[in-house]
């Protein structure tokens, strides 16, 4: 499959400029604001994991917040929403991955924060009820309430809410299964995919799992919900493009650059399940091609195409790529992404040197 798109490079460059000049400073400001809430946290380990998640995973908020530029006059609200939900995601990931707990029930209860955040009418429970630590000074609840307040203002949120809830539920399932006892992880993930396989017959179980681990489809739906004229067919097209293709590409690239780190840490890494490097390379290129192809039917396709091109640009500009000798696939993916991808990649490298991402 060969997909070529031309004619939108000036728009993409303009949007990239706005991302750097407007969005990144706003994201940094939002993260500073959440750090002021965190000062009330009395449990040292919770405060530590929250701070580490904001410091080391800041680029998740930065990259995701590009969708705010597709939200019209709701740009600032959607940016705050994306930063808050992504911060919940990154914080909970740390609590499941780095705080010494392997209790699946605790992880399930913690991740009710994700579904509560996108359902303003849902009662807020004690997210720490089954977790060994709890006194965060109101930090997690404040993040959840921020999300709920903003989604309630988006004019078309009622149209996207069922799908956002479904995606948040899949994300939560993944976090529970992949963080529980090591010997249970693959059986649980495999059985989980078996229930969803009829809808995604072209995927391996680890590719489905990867797609569920991305928040990008939710962010795309938030931006779409800012349009009072949003129609159901546009929601369907967004879902078809983002899940599993764009979301899968996103997380597969994330795991691709973390292979050595995960091997040393004994962590589950999805790309390690490909039978050989050649299959891995072909599948990543396949995800790239499908992701690009599916953007053609979307409203403002050039914007979503830029998101797709931005994924290899962001992840493959990480120094870990060169350190692990992964440059060959990086070059293939950037070429497959087409015009503009190399510009985005070089920009990401420059931002990394300046410690802006």
Question: Can you characterise this structure?
Answer:
The protein is mainly alpha-helical and 357 residues long. It has one domain (12-353): Farnesyl Diphosphate Synthase. The protein is 70% helix and 0% strand. It is built from 18 helices and no strands. It has helices at residues 9-38, 44-56, 58-64, 75-97, 104-110, 112-117, 139-151, 157-179, 182-196, 205-212, 216-225, 232-257, 259-265, 277-294, 301-315, 319-323, 327-337, 341-353. The longest helix is centred in the N-terminal third of the chain and has 30 residues, at 9-38. It is globular and about 50 Å long. The relative contact order is 0.11.
Produce a short descriptive summary.
With 357 residues, this protein is mainly α. It is 70% helix and 0% strand. The chain has one domain: Farnesyl Diphosphate Synthase, CATH 1.10.600.
Q: Distance between termini? A: 33 Å
Largest sheet: none
Could you tell me the mean pLDDT? 94
How many domain regions? Answer: 1
CATH architecture term: Orthogonal Bundle
Name of the top-level CATH class: Mainly Alpha
Q: Indicate the CATH topology.
A: Farnesyl Diphosphate Synthase
What's the layout of helices and strands?
Blueprint: H1 9-38, H2 44-56, H3 58-64, H4 75-97, H5 104-110, H6 112-117, H7 139-151, H8 157-179, H9 182-196, H10 205-212, H11 216-225, H12 232-257, H13 259-265, H14 277-294, H15 301-315, H16 319-323, H17 327-337, H18 341-353
Core attributes:
357 residues; mainly alpha; Farnesyl Diphosphate Synthase; globular; disordered N terminus
């Amino acid at each position: 499959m060969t997909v070529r798109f031309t004619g939108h490079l000036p728009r993409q460059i303009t949007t990239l400029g706005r991302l750097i000049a407007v969005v990144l400073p706003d994201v940094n400001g939002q993260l500073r604001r959440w750090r002021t809430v965190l000062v009330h946290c009395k449990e040292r380990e919770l405060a530590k994991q929250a701070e580490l998640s904001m410091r080391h995973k800041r680029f998740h908020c930065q990259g995701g917040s590009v969708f705010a530029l597709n939200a019209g006059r709701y740009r600032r609200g959607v940016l705050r929403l994306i930063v808050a939900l992504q911060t919940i995601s990154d914080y909970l990931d740390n609590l499941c991955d780095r705080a010494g707990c392997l209790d699946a029930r605790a992880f399930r209860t913690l991740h009710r924060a994700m579904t509560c955040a996108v359902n303003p009418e849902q009662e807020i429970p004690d997210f720490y009820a089954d977790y060994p630590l709890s006194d965060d000074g109101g930090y997690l609840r404040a993040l959840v309430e921020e999300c709920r307040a903003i989604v309630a203002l988006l004019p078309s949120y009622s149209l996207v809410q069922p799908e956002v809830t479904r995606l948040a539920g899949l994300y939560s399932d993944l976090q529970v299964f992949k963080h529980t006892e090591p010997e249970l992880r693959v059986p649980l993930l495999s059985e989980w995919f078996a229930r969803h396989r009829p809808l995604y017959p072209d995927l391996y179980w680890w590719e489905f799992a990867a797609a569920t681990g991305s928040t990008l489809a939710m962010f795309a739906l938030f931006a779409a919900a800012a349009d009072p004229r949003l129609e159901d067919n546009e929601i369907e097209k967004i879902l078809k493009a983002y899940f599993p293709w764009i979301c899968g590409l996103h997380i597969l690239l994330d795991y691709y650059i973390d292979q050595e780190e995960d091997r040393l840490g004994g962590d589950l890494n999805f790309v390690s399940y490909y039978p050989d490097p050649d299959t891995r390379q072909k599948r990543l290129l396949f995800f790239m091609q499908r992701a690009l192809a599916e953007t053609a039917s979307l409203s403002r396709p050039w914007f979503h195409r830029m998101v797709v091109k931005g994924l290899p640009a962001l992840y493959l500009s990480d120094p870990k790529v060169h350190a692990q000798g992964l440059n060959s696939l990086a070059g293939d993916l950037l070429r497959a992404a087409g015009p503009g991808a190399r510009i985005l990649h070089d920009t990401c490298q420059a931002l990394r040197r300046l410690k802006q991402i």
